[in-house]
C-alpha cells in the first residue's frame, strides 16, 4: 500500500444529515428542513415544492437527525479513538445567517462551529469544511428564487467571507459547493430551485449554475486573501460513465454524460467555460447571462484541489433495446453485467474508483481529495448488541486498495474521508436504515430510538487501516 506521510484519513458528514436541532441557537429554516420522508420527498428534490413551511402530518428527518448538535463531543471522541486525521463537516448557512440576507451573522451559530472545531483540534483532527452542502436558507428561496437570482452571489460571498475571517486559525481545508453537479439532477437539493409550469428548466438550471460558479470563484478569492495558508477546493459527484459497447455512438454518449458533470469542475479548476458547453448552450437555445468581469473572476480564482465523492460507476447505451436501468442512484445508468449491486441498486465497482481518480487527475493536474466513499446497507444489531458488517469492510477494503493503486499510478491524493463514519440520515431517501457508519445509531426511519451509539465491526477495521497508514487493510 502506498499512502504518503500525512495522508488525511477520516470521515465525512453533513450538517443537515447529522446535526438536528433545526431551529435551535437562532438557526433559520433551510431547504433540507422542507424534505419529508415518503412520496413527496422525490418530487420536492426535483423542484416541486408545495410549501415554504414544514407540512402537518409529515416526518422531517433533518429536524432531529442524529442530534450531532448536542452530541458532537461524544461522537468526536469515537472518531479520535479510530485515529481520524480529518473530519469533513459542513456549516449550515442558516445557522450563520438565519434568513440568508441578515445584516449581521448569528453569534450563537458561529460559536457552535467554533466549539466543534476546537473539539476536533483537541484530538489533532483537521476540520475539512464544506461551505454549502445541499442547504439554502428558505427565505432566499421564497423571496429571491434562490440561485436563479444573481443577488445570491453577493449573499454567498458575505457568508463565505464571514467564515474565513472567523475560522482562519482553525480550518486549513475548505470546499465551496458539495457535489455541485447535483444541481442538474436534483435542482431543489443542489440549488434550492423551485419550478412552475411552463418554466424552461434547462435555462434556469444553467443560469443558477453560473451564479454558483461565480460565487465559488469569489469564495476562492476571499479565502486566498484572508487565509493564505489554507486550501480551498471544489467538489464533484464523480464516477465515470462506461459505454455499454464499443459502438462509437455509445462511446460518444458516455463522453457526453461525463462532460455534463465535468463542466462544473472545468470552470472551477481551469477557469473558463469549455467549448463543448458553449456548443450545448447553442444547440439547446440556452443563454447564460453574465456580468462584466465574470469571465475574469472565473479565470483568476480557480480552486486548489478537486474534492470528489465516489460510490459507483455508470454505463450508457444508445440502443433502445438496452433499457435495463439500475435503481437507487440519482444518476441514470444501464445495469452493468460485470458488477455486483448494493441493496439500493448501486453498482459496486472498486476498479472504477481507480479509473475515476486517474481520469480526474489527468484532466486537472491538481491534488484530489476523496471526500465521500462508502456502502449504504441495512445493518442488524445482534442479540448481544453487535453489528457484524463484514460486507462494508469488504467494500471499503477493495476501494482503499484501488486508491492505493491510483497513488502508485502517480495520482496525488490528499486524503480519504469515507461517507457517514457514523450512521446519519440518507440525503436521497431520508432513511436511517440505509447506514454507512462504523458507528451504529439507534434510530429508525420513523424517528424512534434511543440514539445510543454502538461500534460496529468495521470500527476496529478502519482504526487499524489508519494506524498503519493503509498498510493493513
Q: How would you describe the overall organization of this protein?
A:
InterPro entries: GH, GH_1_N_CS, Glyco_hydro_1, Glyco_hydro_1_AS. The chain contains 15 helices and 14 strands. The protein has 473 residues and is α/β, with parallel strands linked by helices. It has one domain: Alpha-Beta Barrel (TIM Barrel), CATH 3.20.20.80. An eight-stranded parallel beta barrel has the order 1-2-3-4-5-7-11-12, surrounded by four helices. A two-stranded parallel sheet has the order 6-8. Strand 9 and strand 10 form a beta hairpin. Helix 3 packs parallel to helix 5 (107-122), helix 7 runs parallel beside helix 9 (201-226) and helix 13 (350-364) packs parallel to helix 14 (390-408).
Characteristic terms for this protein:
473 residues; TIM Barrel; single chain; eight-stranded parallel beta barrel; globular; alpha/beta; two-stranded parallel sheet
Present the secondary structure layout:
Elements: E1 8-12, H1 15-18, H2 39-45, H3 68-82, E2 86-90, H4 93-96, H5 107-122, E3 126-132, H6 138-144, H7 151-167, E4 173-177, H8 187-191, H9 201-226, E5 231-238, E6 241-243, H10 248-270, H11 275-283, H12 294-300, E7 305-310, E8 314-316, E9 340-341, E10 347-348, H13 350-364, E11 368-372, H14 390-408, E12 413-419, E13 439-441, E14 453-455, H15 457-467
Parallel strand pairs: 1-2, 1-12, 2-3, 3-4, 4-5, 5-7, 6-8, 7-11, 11-12
Antiparallel strand pairs: 9-10, 13-14
The order of strands across the largest sheet is: 1-2-3-4-5-7-11-12
Oligomeric form: single chain
Shape: globular
From the N-terminal CA to the C-terminal CA, the straight-line distance is: 9 Å
How many helices? The count is: 15
Low-pLDDT stretches: none
- The helicity comes to 25-40%
The CATH class: Alpha Beta
Query: How many structurally independent domains?
Result: 1
* SS class: alpha/beta
Percentage of β-strand residues: 5-15%
Query: What name does the CATH topology carry?
Result: TIM Barrel
CATH architecture label name: Alpha-Beta Barrel
CATH superfamily: Glycosidases
How many DSSP E strands? 14
Largest sheet, strands/sense/barrel: 8 strands, parallel, barrel
The overall average pLDDT, rounded, is 96
* Element-level helix/strand string: EHHHEHHEHHEHHEEHHHEEEEHEHEEEH
Estimated radius of gyration: 21 Å
